[in-house]
Amino acid sequence: MLGPLHMIQVTRLNGSAFTLNALYIEKIESFPDTTITLTTGTKYVVLDRADDVNSRIIEFYKAVQLLSNPHIRGEENEE
């Protein structure tokens, strides 16, 4: 079972908050509403700006240390 560390919070168009599993987010687009597409094909339209959602995803990756590997960050040489 996945805990809250795998989740980011977003807000539906009606103002209610919910959480998404950040590991399943495939893409985020603005049409101008922000649409989040999961790897399952499910789409959510949210009030949050795409930049804000991206920031939450980056913070999630940092929290679980997905960005701690220099090869994932695109660095050639490890120190």
What is the topology?
Elements: E1 7-11, E2 17-21, E3 25-30, E4 34-38, E5 43-46, H1 50-63, H2 70-73
Antiparallel strand pairs: 1-2, 3-4, 4-5
Q: Can you put this structure into words, describing what you see?
A:
The protein is 23% helix and 32% strand. It has helices at residues 50-63, 70-73, and strands spanning 7-11, 17-21, 25-30, 34-38, 43-46. The strands form two sheets. The protein has a three-stranded antiparallel beta sheet with strand order 3-4-5, with helices on one face. It has a two-stranded antiparallel ribbon with strand order 1-2. The mean pLDDT is 84.
Q: pLDDT average, as an integer?
A: 84
Helicity range? 10-25%
Count of helices?
A: 2
- Oligomer state equals single chain
Instruction: State the secondary-structure class.
Output: alpha+beta
Uncertain stretches: none
| DSSP strand tally | 5
Percent strand: 25-35%
Question: What is Rg?
Answer: 14 Å
Sheet with most strands: strand arrangement: 3-4-5
Name the helix and strand elements from N-terminus to C-terminus, one letter apiece.
Answer: EEEEEHH
Major sheet characteristics: 3 strands, antiparallel
| Terminal residue distance | 35 Å
Shape: globular
List keywords for this structure.
23% helix, 5 strands, two-stranded antiparallel sheet, single chain, alpha+beta, 79 residues, three-stranded antiparallel sheet
